[in-house]
Amino acid sequence: KEMKFLEQSGCLKGSLSAEEQLSLISGCLNIQAAVEGAMHIQECVPENLELKKKIFAQLDQIIDDKVVLSSSTSCLLPSKLFAGLAHVKQCIVAHPVNPPYYVPLVELVPHPETAPSTVDRTYALMQKIGQSPVRVMKEIDGFALNRLQYAIISEAWRLVEEGIVSPSDLDLVMSDGLGMRYAFIGPLETMHLNAEGMLSYCNRYSEGMQRVLKTFGPIPDFSGTTVEKVNQAMCVKVPNDPEHLAARRQWRDECLLRLAKLKRQMQSQ
């Protein structure tokens, strides 16, 4: 249903029709049969280290020296995921962002022993299928996207917890404030454009930034009265039953679809 909607709205990725793409997808209960003839294997099982290691240990016994073994993990370190594998040079994390069809970023995180050619091949493949790959040069807990996301969530939580802003207003600060900028440019380019270049920005604002950053509190525990307060505010906006959540996710995806179209139009100018 989604594929046909994307096709009708002119947003289907790739050169094949929705029907042709769907005909290439099939399920399989045997892992050896599932990966036969593969050149890239993308693991998408739940975020459980032991389960993922079990899958990669099985794949390690099956594959040749050419196929890339890739994990969709959002924060498990490659050094833990791929430890002890014979084909470790062919292993990489390729972390997509939810929902991946509409948010194209993919973080590529190598194991310390991953071959540069594995990174290059995965980067080229992600570009070819319409994603936006970025190279994380070495592994770090949370990679890049979640480290930025958690920093925002942490300060957002403190602002609500300390009664500075309400949960709904906090979200508005992002959706109608920072998010408007960050949909097209990142924080570093924002700095560059908000003055006469980066050096000018740092000369002008570094003292104030350091002063504010020193007032940041400890890491919240995301529990107690604050989580009740935030949950209540979120449920007023979107009740947490499956029907309302699904409808809101669909609305979110339609917003992201339109934004993706606008970004493509802007890039082509």
TrEMBL record:
Residues 142-220 form the 3-hydroxyacyl-CoA dehydrogenase C-terminal domain. Keywords: Cytoplasm, NAD, Oxidoreductase, Phosphoprotein. One of its GO terms (biological process) is fatty acid metabolic process. The record marks 95 as: Important for catalytic activity. The keyword NAD applies. It is found in: Cytoplasm. One of its GO terms (cellular component) is cytosol. Gene3D superfamilies: N-(1-d-carboxylethyl)-l-norvaline Dehydrogenase, domain 2 (1.10.1040.10), NAD(P)-binding Rossmann-like Domain (3.40.50.720). GO terms for molecular function: L-gulonate 3-dehydrogenase activity; NAD+ binding; protein homodimerization activity. Its main location: cytoplasm. Residues 15-139 form the 3-hydroxyacyl-CoA dehydrogenase NAD binding domain. Signal peptide: none annotated. Its EC number is 1.1.1.45. It is an enzyme of class 1 (oxidoreductase). It holds the Pfam family 3HCDH_N. Homodimer. Belongs to the 3-hydroxyacyl-CoA dehydrogenase family. This is L-gulonate 3-dehydrogenase.
